[in-house]
């Protein structure tokens, strides 16, 4: 049976934190245009969606349907996120970012995400992926962070 990794599993969270701490400002991406500090800030923004601090715009019905199908596909096949996927403009980072501040803020927001999840107060819906359970959030947020940490070789 396939093991689904989740940021809400304490061991997976520790491993993810260790990988984040293994990054340094000299890390280069294997694909894409982001610098490592921008990637950290982007990942922080994505987690902020999960804790309700960033509200995404509504998507059109076709994109919404594709997003729902993508979530289902990822659950069935446990596959990763393809390289260079489009994202919401609110989550795109173009500005220069401080590496240490971006890393520390991501770790802080990750902790906040886990606390809010434990209290059962994560949003019940995502503007792309549709209805979300706590289990869905833990799984999808792990997939997103794992994707970007692999992008930078950790």
From TrEMBL:
Domain of life: Bacteria
Organism: Chryseobacterium suipulveris
Protein name according to UniProt: DUF1569 domain-containing protein
Pfam assignment, any one: DUF1569
């Amino acid at each position: 049976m396939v093991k689904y990794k989740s940021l809400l599993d304490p061991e997976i969270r520790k491993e993810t934190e260790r990988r984040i701490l293994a990054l340094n400002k000299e890390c280069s991406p294997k694909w894409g245009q982001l610098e490592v500090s921008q990637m950290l800030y982007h990942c922080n923004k994505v987690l902020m969606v999960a804790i309700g601090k960033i509200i995404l715009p509504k998507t059109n019905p076709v994109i919404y349907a594709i997003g729902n199908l993508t979530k289902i596909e990822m659950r069935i096949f446990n596959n990763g996120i393809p390289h260079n996927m489009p994202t919401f403009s609110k989550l795109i980072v173009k500005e220069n970012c401080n590496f240490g501040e971006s890393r520390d803020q991501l770790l802080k927001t990750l902790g906040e995400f886990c606390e809010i999840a434990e209290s059962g107060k994560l949003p019940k819906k995502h503007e792309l992926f549709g209805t979300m359970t706590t289990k869905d959030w833990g799984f999808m947020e792990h997939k997103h962070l794992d994707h970007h940490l692999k992008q930078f070789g950790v």
